[in-house]
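Sequence and structure are no longer studied apart. As an example, we show below a sequence and the tokens encoding its fold:
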Amino acid sequence: MKTYAVKAGEIERKWYLVDAQGMVLGRLAAEVARILKGKHKPCYSPHLDVGDNVIVVNAEKVVLTGNKAEKKVYYHHSGYPGGLKETVYADLMRRKPEFVVRKAVRGMLPHNRLGRSMLRKLHVYAGPDHPHQAQKPERLELPQAAAR
């Protein structure tokens, strides 16, 4: 018996809607990355992008456990000497809550061309509204983990 290998033209993509209200950031990002990679499908193949599209709404209401909300720091570099910039999680959530969720998911995807193509299927919105009603997204219920 031969092993079945999925071809790029045979991949069927679905749309999933995830409500991030009250969810822990890391647990949410892990589940979203799993769906973007396609690991929930029987035709999963690590060298192909077989994952589905994911819409995350209410990104501004995601939580962190413990005291990470005050102590977590995001870094980026301008590329120039002495150009290391840092931003506290609370400030970033106030200004760009979509970036926080996108960065958490990006860290859980492959760090190559394949990961970038998977990340293009992620759509994050701060509020409850999104412009993807025409795709008829299926609501995905993830387990709510209470923040400690």
The domain at 13-64+98-139 is CATH 3.90.1180.10 (Ribosomal Protein L13p; Chain: A;).
